[in-house]
Inverse folding.
């Protein structure tokens, strides 16, 4: 009897590792079966707890090779999990240092989280992000810098996202998150049920653009306003834009951001 139970447990363990290995192969970044297994669990969590629906603009996820910056609006603490659940790249998220839980340092290292402070010392985190992109990696960033409150209103995009794009020439994969729980704290959104929706838009290249970093940030903010129809807070640190005008058709030949 013990041998049978042991055999069944070993078989289940092997099947679990096999499922993790298959999931890892589907990601476009080299990873291990354990990480692949956690991606399976993450997707299951996103669907069961947040009823996640993933929509993609045609061609949005067909060509994601090379250095990539995933840019998303920020609605809840669960946003990184939801975006990662729908993205075929392994994302190293940029996270504010004051959100770090020291007891989870092993998890942050394993997930390749890049911590930045909210002052001038945050430059080290940005250097780490540039190094990851130089190695062909994929990083994720919330340019609003804090949670949207109330939901349905965009916060100003920090020019730092434009600086990162400008200095690395990495393409931008825009992601729109909505339908997440509007909870009192960022962490409580993890266990609060919701009907979340994640939309992936086609990647944008600013490699041949003459826009400045502040203008790139403003251009992205303007596109989000156009895609969502949400108002934008007026105290934007990025260049001013007209949120009612259509987004520029060709940013590589036109510096206009309105």
């Amino acid at each position: 009897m013990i041998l049978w139970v042991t055999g069944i447990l070993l078989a289940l363990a092997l099947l679990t590792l096999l499922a993790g290995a298959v999931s890892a192969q589907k990601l476009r970044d080299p990873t291990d079966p354990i990480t692949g297994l956690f991606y399976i669990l993450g997707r299951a969590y996103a669907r069961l707890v947040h009823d996640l629906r993933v929509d993609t603009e045609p061609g949005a996820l067909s060509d994601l090779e090379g250095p990539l910056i995933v840019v998303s609006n920020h609605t809840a603490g669960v946003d990184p999990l939801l975006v990662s659940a729908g993205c075929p790249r392994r994302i190293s998220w940029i996270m504010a240092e004051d959100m770090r839980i020291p007891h989870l340092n092993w998890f942050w290292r394993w997930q390749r989280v890049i911590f930045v402070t909210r002052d001038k010392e945050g430059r080290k985190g940005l250097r780490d992000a540039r190094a990851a992109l130089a190695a062909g990696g994929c990083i994720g960033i919330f340019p609003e810098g804090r949670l949207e409150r109330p939901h349905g209103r965009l916060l100003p995009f920090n020019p730092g996202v434009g600086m990162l794009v400008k200095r690395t020439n990495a393409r931008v994969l825009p992601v729109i998150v909505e339908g997440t729980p509007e909870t009192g704290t960022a962490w409580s959104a993890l266990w609060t049920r919701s009907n979340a929706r994640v939309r992936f838009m086609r990647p944008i290249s600013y490699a041949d653009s003459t826009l400045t970093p502040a203008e790139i940030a403003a251009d992205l903010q303007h596109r989000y306003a156009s895609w969502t129809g949400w108002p934008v807070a007026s105290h934007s640190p990025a260049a001013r834009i007209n949120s009612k005008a259509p987004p520029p058709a060709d940013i590589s030949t036109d510096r206009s951001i309105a």
User: Anything to note?
Assistant: Strands lie at 53-56, 68-72, 92-96, 114-116, 138-141, 171-178, 197-200. The chain has one domain: 40-228. Residues 7-24, 236-258 have pLDDT under 50 and may be disordered. The chain has seven helices and seven strands.
